[in-house]
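Page 47, continued from p. 46.
Same chain as before, 324 aa.
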Amino acid sequence: MSILPEVGAVAGAGALESFRARFYQCLTSRGDALFELADALLCSPGPVRSLPALSLNGAFRRGHGSLYEALNAGRIDTDRLQGLLSGQRLGRVGGRIVLAVDATGWLRPDANCSPGRLYCHVTGHGRGQDQMVPGWSYSFVATLASGASSWTQILDAVRIGQDDDAAETTTAQLRSVIEALIGAGQHRPGEAPILIVTDAGYDVPRLAHQLGDLPVIIIGRLRSDRVLYGRPTPASGRGRRPKHGRAHRMSDPTTWGEPDTTTATETARYGRLEARSWEALHPWLKQRSAWIDHDGDLPIIEGTLIRLETERLPHTGTPQPLWL
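Result:
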């Protein structure tokens, strides 16, 4: 594609031309074929269901053999590509960078010879309809913006191998992305911390502990059967000071106590939306699972527990409270 330059490198087609030139520099082997393959992928009018179909796209000017050579022998400088993506204009929410991290599976149930397959969780329609399907699992980090949109600004994607600890892989991935954003000037000292949003499958306290030296806040969905603990009351007399205070059982309202903050607002889509929060709560960590190799006393990782409750849902169904 030929693009006429415009006045100013950040304007319209000029920005696209600059991005394409820098993207081409990230392709260190079979760069021409990989570049045209990316164009063919973007210019396809609908879902891409086969590789040979991409070789028939007008943007790919080579034979289908070059397509397979590009995929088998092509190389991409991922560090340079991450720096390129981190330097682009990011969507923000209230001026704050918000990152979402999640894992998704590239399902390969019939590819018995494909190496490194895992069992990927697939959500079904209805209770008890979830499945575990063989495939490749990938962890994605994307930026979020205000408003409803089908566009997603992906900053990084990492494949999770059979021998990888998914939590450790996610932690290293988030650290790499955040450091790249800071290096690109997207976040400066004194600005609001970067918000990282996760689903219920992530260990939020562990993420917060491992990323504690970075300017981030972790917010994640929790199961409604979790139990957290408050700060212990001052010890009277002799003996070891207790580490854990009153239990906050999410399934038992009698243990909640008075919230530290309560807000409510009327919305057209959900009706009355109420939020309550309890501060300085922490999980009771055990010397097993992720913490089995931890030396010394296990840390006390405090956070704020939030309960969201809505009056109705846009469609059918009974709304359930959301714990964060």
